[in-house]
Design goal:
By secondary structure, the chain is an all-alpha fold. It is 79% helix and 0% strand. The longest helix has 33 residues. The protein is globular, with a radius of gyration of 20 Å.
């Protein structure tokens, strides 16, 4: 374990160095972190091996990082500031989610119809496509200190998007698994785990508000917040792995509910201090999440990617961009949101790979040949899309006029 932790520290230093090199090319540091993960991962140098990624201690660390990423989003969700935009964000989320599901499902529905492949597989592909990986865009926001309507919309939308994705995915998979085997996850399971995630976050958020209420020195505040995050994560993991029949609790959602609760209970001045004090902790969590995102991506899949992969990437991009445009137009959002929000929603890997693993597990029992179609298509798409999407996400912020080059201090913290 000690050797593994020391290696993890070395990997982070390598990612920081790569991030600085990438930043000199006027590209987001996160691309350097992602490429570092792929380079040191099991499909390249194998320094960041499967033994490390599958170990209990690493799983615990990544779980803490997921809650911490939720912390970054949740501290921005001030209820007084969100009352006016809440309905707008909800409409955009439903529009881009429905459009993406429809675009990918129809595209593969047509292909599978002519190839004699069951149409239910197209709906599984569509459900997987809904998921957005929040970490890449959030890292760009943190690195470049973006400000404006696109940033303000993306922050809450990033987590709401995955909430909708989880609901749709488990509903589709529940119907498919019941059709294939006569049994499967009940349809109420997805809403239940989402509600449970939010309740746990709110509960620990109330306790944290009491702990953080009094102003304190930076080191003391940081230790308190880390302690609260660790306790919240530990309890969540226990429930996820020992109480739920199928572990799929959204730790980032727990972190969002946790942080949003104490953010809205504490004075604004105290919250400004807390956010400043925990910034480095959040950046470290982001680097680890991106390394974990990049390591399992097999770059060899780029060479062998077939036309299914191309269809998936293009159909999903069309669904996200056009859906965000329509949702923003219907909700009368500002022009930059209508034009450029879709580009910031293109990062995909994290949750989609989890969904893929669950789908393969369900399908491999009765239809292993169809499980292979999903696994190969999504895995290859994850590699290609993630590299392209990071660049396009930064471009979205730039075109919206919300991007500023990082200062030397913020570049050091973010890279």
């Amino acid at each position: 374990m000690l050797k593994g932790i020391l290696l993890l520290l070395l990997f982070m230093l390598l990612a920081v160095g790569a991030g600085k090199l990438i930043a000199k090319l006027h590209m987001p540091a996160i691309l350097g972190w992602l490429l570092t993960g792929m380079l040191i991962g099991p499909y390249a140098l194998d320094w960041f091996s499967l033994d490390i990624m599958e170990s209990a201690w690493f799983h615990a660390i990544i779980s803490v990082c997921e809650v911490t990423a939720g912390l970054f989003i949740g501290t921005e969700l001030v209820w007084k500031e969100m009352k006016e935009s809440g309905k707008q964000i909800f409409i955009i989320c439903l529009a881009e989610g429905f459009n993406t599901f429809l675009a990918v499902s129809i595209a593969f529905g047509v292909i599978f119809y002519f190839q004699g492949i069951p149409l239910y597989l197209a709906f599984v592909m569509g459900a997987i496509a809904l998921a957005t990986a929040p970490a890449p865009s959030l890292s760009i926001i943190n690195e470049y200190k973006t400000k404006g309507p696109v940033t303000n919309t993306l922050m809450p939308l990033a987590i709401l998007d995955d909430v909708v994705a989880i609901l749709v995915f488990f509903s589709v998979l529940g119907v498919v698994s019941n059709r294939l085997s006569g049994s499967g996850l009940p349809l109420y399971y997805a809403p239940m785990i989402l509600a449970l995630s939010i309740m746990i976050g709110i509960g620990f958020g109330f306790l944290t508000a009491r702990i953080l209420k009094k102003p304190a020195a930076k080191a003391k505040t940081l230790l308190k917040i880390i302690g609260c995050v660790l306790v919240t994560t530990a309890f969540s993991l226990y429930v996820n792995e020992h109480v739920l029949s199928s572990p799929m609790m959204n730790l980032m959602l727990i972190g969002v509910a946790f942080a949003a609760t104490f953010t809205n209970l504490l004075p604004q001045a105290r919250m400004a201090q807390i956010k400043s004090d925990i910034n480095l902790f959040v950046v470290i969590a982001m680097i680890l999440l991106i390394l974990d995102l990049g390591a399992p991506l097999d770059f060899h899949l780029i060479i062998g990617a077939g036309w299914f992969t191309a269809v998936y990437i293009l159909a999903r991009a069309f669904g996200k961009v056009s859906g965000a445009y329509l949702g923003a137009a219907w909700s009368k959002a500002p022009q930059p949101v209508k034009k450029y929000l879709g580009l910031t929603l293109l990062p995909h890997s994290g949750v989609s790979l989890i969904f893929t693993g669950i789908s393969v597990s369900v399908l491999s029992q009765n239809s292993p040949e169809y499980a292979g179609i999903i696994q190969g298509t999504i895995a290859a798409a994850a590699v290609i899309n993630e590299i392209i999407a990071v660049v396009l996400a930064k471009q979205g912020f730039k075109l919206a006029g919300e991007l500023s080059e990082p200062t030397s201090e913020s570049a050091l913290k973010s890279a």
